[in-house]
Design goal:
Strand 7, helix 9 and strand 8 form a beta-alpha-beta unit. Helix 2 packs across helix 3, helix 8 crosses helix 9 and helix 10 packs across helix 11. This protein has eleven helices and ten strands. Helix content is 32%, strand content 17%.
C-alpha cells in the first residue's frame, strides 16, 4: 500500500504556453493540485478535510458517501479513512458489474465496503438524505450503522466541502488573473471559488455532465454574495457525450498536451477542461491579454480504466 498522506507542498503553479495562447496574448497558468497525492488529489482533499474534522469531533468511526464506478471522490474518501483509522462505505450508483472498475478496486484495497444501489434509489439519496425505510431492505447495513456514521454527499457537495473549496485560492496570487477555468461536476468547487474570489475575477466552469444548462450544476444557495453570479459562465459543449465519456479527439488532445507541455490529464475531468480552454482560445472567446488560471483538480487515477496504450503517459 503506497503512502497515503497528501502533501500540499508539492502543489505548483505551472506555465502553459501554446502558440494559440501567444497569438491572442493570453497568459495561462495551471494550478497543479493533482500533485498532492495519487488518490487524495486535486480538489478532493479540500472538499473532504472539514467532513473529516466534523467526524472526529462527533466521534464518528465510519465515513459513508456516494459515487459512480469512476468516482475520484470515493477513492479519495477511502484513502482518507484509511489514513485516519476510520472505516468507509461507498454507495455505488447502479447494479454491481461483473468486473469492477480500477477505481472501485483501489477503493476496496483501502478498505472501503462497496454497496451497489438501484439508480433511482441512489439519485434520491446521494445528498445523504438517508431514510431508514430502505437501508436494511437494499443493503446489509443496520440502521444503527448509518446513524453512527458521518454521511458525506456525493462529491463532497455539502457545507463542509464548500468551506474547504473556498481555501483553494489562498494558494495563488488571484489578483494577477482575470479568469479561472475549471471542470465542474457537482459544482461544489466552483461555488467555493466564487465565494473566495475577488469581485472582478471571471470564473468559467466546464461542465463534464451531459444535459446541464445555464448555471447548472452550481447550487446558487451556496453563494455568499449573489451578485458574484454575474462573474460565472458555465460552458456545456465539452462533455464528449457525458460523464466519463470520451472519444479519439479527446484522448488525442490529452496526448498532444502531454507531449507539448508535460501536463498529464484525466479523461473524465481535466482532459475535457484543457480541450475546452484551447478551443475557446482558438475561437477568441477570451479578451486579448487575458490572464487565465486553470485548475487541475487531479483524478489521474481514472485513466487506469482506459485501454492500455491509449494514452502516452
Amino acid at each position: 500500500m503506497p503512502d497515503i498522506r497528501p502533501d500540499l507542498t508539492k502543489i505548483t503553479l505551472d506555465s502553459w504556453d501554446l502558440e494559440v495562447f501567444r497569438q491572442n496574448e493570453l497568459r495561462v497558468d495551471i494550478l497543479r493540485l493533482d500533485k498532492i497525492h495519487s488518490e487524495i488529489s486535486g480538489n478532493k482533499w479540500f472538499k473532504l478535510k472539514y467532513f473529516l474534522e466534523k467526524a472526529n469531533h462527533n466521534n464518528k468511526r465510519t465515513l459513508i458517501s456516494f459515487g459512480g464506478a469512476y468516482s475520484n471522490h470515493l477513492l479519495a474518501l477511502a484513502a482518507t479513512a484509511r489514513l485516519h483509522g476510520l472505516s468507509s462505505i461507498g454507495m455505488i450508483r447502479g447494479e454491481q458489474p461483473l468486473l469492477l472498475s480500477h477505481t472501485l478496486i483501489a477503493a476496496k484495497e483501502y478498505g472501503m465496503k462497496l454497496i451497489f444501489l438501484p439508480r433511482t434509489l441512489f439519485d434520491q439519496n446521494k445528498r445523504s438524505d438517508l431514510s431508514d425505510n430502505w437501508v436494511e431492505k437494499y443493503t446489509d447495513l443496520k440502521v444503527e450503522t448509518i446513524r453512527d456514521s458521518m454521511l458525506i454527499p456525493e462529491g463532497g457537495a455539502g457545507i463542509e466541502g464548500l468551506r474547504g473549496a473556498e481555501e483553494i485560492l489562498s494558494l495563488v496570487p488571484q489578483r494577477e488573473y482575470s479568469h479561472i477555468c475549471l471542470a465542474v461536476g457537482t459544482g461544489t468547487t466552483l461555488a467555493g471559488l466564487v465565494n473566495s474570489s475577488h469581485p472582478d475575477l471571471k470564473l468559467i466552469g466546464i461542465s463534464i455532465l451531459k444535459g446541464t444548462r445555464d448555471l447548472e450544476p452550481i447550487d446558487i444557495s451556496w453563494l455568499k454574495d449573489r451578485f458574484k453570479i454575474a462573474n460565472v459562465q458555465m460552458v456545456h459543449d465539452y462533455h464528449f457525450g457525458g460523464y466519463a465519456k470520451y472519444n479519439a479527439s479527446l484522448t488525442g488532445s490529452m496526448n498532444t498536451t502531454y507531449a507539448e507541455s508535460g501536463i498529464p490529464t484525466d479523461f473524465v475531468y481535466t482532459g475535457k477542461l484543457l480541450f475546452a480552454v484551447i478551443s475557446m482560445a482558438d475561437m477568441k472567446l477570451f479578451p486579448l491579454g487575458s490572464r487565465i488560471l486553470v485548475l487541475h483538480t487531479g483524478g489521474l487515477q481514472g485513466n487506469r480504466s482506459l485501454t492500455p496504450g491509449l494514452l502516452g503517459f
